[in-house]
Design a protein that fits this description.
The protein is an alpha/beta fold. Helix content is about 35%, strand content about 20%. The termini are far apart.
Length: about 325
């Protein structure tokens, strides 16, 4: 009888220890929802952080930025850090209910990426005609789930007017819809398997994957801050934060944004990681090596609500 009591005692100790270990592990794990285009730099930055903090784990999920936000607003999933390819949808879809602030951190530009054998077939003059060719297949991402998708629509809108080619936008949007994917990085597999000849995607993704790409003029690539007023003349409607609603996205220079949601289980640890992420010699150095120029510090939404440790990476609006 005494031996059975001892067995029971030791079994209880083992179970308690296991649960304690699981809790400790969970407390040191950061859940990060991020844009697909950030997959490479996020991997590099989290690995660099873990060299200094090996006790911290990361659960990272790549998706279109709109889809990532809706995991928080619609599905109410726990998330410690949200990294969006478009800072403005954090303002429109998360603030003030799901987040209080938004730091802008990196830039990018739209490009047309191609398979190697297509390199000599396309240029800054003929690209609309090449993509419209019935023998040519091209891919783009879904505007309702991914900023790269609605930015593709904005590029086509601007190009139609710049090149004085009526119906350019609608003709290309109607073509090859079967090759539309939820996020921009899903398109790479289509290109690498030669399922498509060209894709609209961010320049940084082409650089990271060592793919050939055609740089577009500043008048349509959504890169140049000096052309913000011109970009704004283009617009597209996408799904809103609530089912059945729509929001209008106007063209603007491409700027990424980040925030810590109000439901973050590990907000203090998230702040420490973002202090590393936004540091010019740490995370942002790796971001720039991955083809995305830093814009830190830049005007931030909800500046007064930003954790004091991170305010040095932002500027008050105006």
């Amino acid at each position: 009888m005494q031996w059975k009591k001892l067995q029971h005692y030791f079994l209880v100790l083992i179970i308690v220890s296991l649960f304690a270990g699981c809790k400790s592990s969970t407390d040191q794990q950061l859940v990060v929802f991020h844009a697909g285009s950030l997959s490479v730099p996020v991997k590099r930055i989290t690995e660099a952080y873990q060299l200094e903090h090996p006790e911290v784990g990361f659960l990272t999920e790549a998706a279109g930025s709109v889809a990532s936000i809706r995991k928080i607003t619609d599905l109410h999933r726990d998330c410690d850090i949200l990294l969006s390819a478009d800072y403005s949808i954090i303002d429109k879809m998360m603030i003030p209910e799901y987040s209080s602030w938004n730091i802008r951190f990196a830039a990018n530009e739209m490009a047309i990426v191609y398979a190697t054998e297509a390199a000599d077939s396309i240029n800054t003059i003929n690209w609309p005609r090449v993509l419209a060719n019935e023998k040519v297949r091209y891919g783009r991402s879904d505007p309702d789930s991914d900023p790269c998708g609605y930015r593709t629509v904005l590029v086509l809108d601007l190009a139609e007017r710049m090149l004085h080619q009526p119906e350019l936008k609608q003709n290309l949007l109607d073509k090859d819809r079967r090759y539309m994917r939820p996020k921009e990085t899903d398109l790479i597999a289509l290109l690498e398997t030669r399922t498509v000849d060209y894709i609209f995607i961010y320049r940084s993704v082409a650089v990271q994957h060592k793919l050939g790409y055609l740089l577009l003029p500043d008048s349509i690539n959504l890169k140049n801050p000096e052309l913000a007023d011109w970009y704004e003349t283009a617009s597209v409607e996408i799904v809103g934060s609530a089912p059945g609603t729509k929001i209008t996205q106007h063209g603007e220079p491409m700027i990424y944004g980040l925030t810590i949601p109000k439901n973050a289980p590990n907000s203090e640890l998230a702040i420490d990681f973002l202090d590393f992420f936004l540091n010019a010699t740490q995370g942002m150095r790796l971001m720039e090596e991955a083809g995305q120029p830093s814009v830190v510090p830049a005007p931030a939404s909800g500046y007064d609500e930003i954790p004091v440790e991170l305010q040095k990476y932002a500027l008050p609006p105006g």
